[in-house]
Amino acid sequence: MRIFRDSFDLQAILERTRVAGYAFASNAVTDELNAALAEEIRRQRLEVGDHVNYPINKGAANEVRQMHERAYHPLDHADVPVGTELCRALSALTQPMLHAYPELEPWLLNEIGYQQYRDDRDWISPHRDRATDRLLSVTFTMFGSAWIRLYAPETDPPDYRHLRQTDQFLTGPGTVLFLRAPGFGSGQQIIHEVMPPVVAPRGILNLRMRPTILKPPSET
User: Fold this and answer.
1) pTM for this structure?
2) Which domains does the chain have, with CATH numbers?
3) Cα–Cα distance between 20 and 80 in angstroms, integer?
4) Which of 33, 49, 81, 125 has minimal Cβ neighbours within 10 Å of its Cβ?
5) Cα dihedral value 121, 124, 126, 129, nearest 10
6) Beta carbons within 10 angstroms of residue 196's beta carbon
7) What's the pLDDT tens digit per position in 62-118?
8) First vs last Cα of the chain: how many Å apart?
9) What is the spatial distance between Cα 136 and Cα 131, in angstroms, rounded to a whole number?
């Protein structure tokens, strides 16, 4: 299965992610893959994760609020054959570029996380991804759309209440977002916010390389 359209320049995306911390591309994913991922999310047993009433790091400078449906699985789980194939295919695509990015030699995404943002109540406040994430994270949007906003901190250490917006882009079917994680480039992770859907529902696939897989809400 082809992942990206012929016009997609993976090496340019990797270089921008290494330097800037992120790279976004529209009309990047083939219709075949987008349809397969959309079908796979519809087969998931999605659960609501409520971190609006129960914030992460409540009261701290890095408090995060979020609400959406989700299902996370490890690589090779029986419920995510398309996601698993995609993780391995992405790793294979980077192999010819290891001369430029030798740090990506061990890169294999191992957490397959489907999320669905149902309506204007579902969102994620400004945040950085887990500090234990490694190298590169990738997000595909299969259906729906939403704005993603990027920020620079105005304090050190960062206080999510005091940020300066630096960029934004509108996700939609076939868009892809790469995020830098520790071990690639400077390793500094970008603060970003996921706004409520402009077109709902919005279905996405988050792929991460991390030591432990997020648990479903019913187990937390």
Assistant:
1) 0.96
2) 22-214 (2.60.120.590)
3) 31
4) 81
5) 180
6) 18
7) 999 999 999 999 999 999 999 999 999 999 999 999 999 999 999 999 999 999 999
8) 35
9) 12
SS3 102: helix
Q: Within 13 Å of residue 12, how many CA atoms lie on the same side as its CB?
A: 6
DSSP code of residue 219: G
Rounded Cα distance between 21 and 216, Å, is 28
- 195 Cβ neighbours under 8 A, 6+ residues apart: 123, 146, 147, 148, 149
Structure tokens at 191: 């603060």
* Cβ–Cβ < 8 Å for 3, 90: yes
* Token pair listed for 205: 């696939």
Interatomic CA distance for residues 18 and 181, integer angstroms: 9
**H helices present in the chain, as ranges:** 10-20, 31-42, 81-94
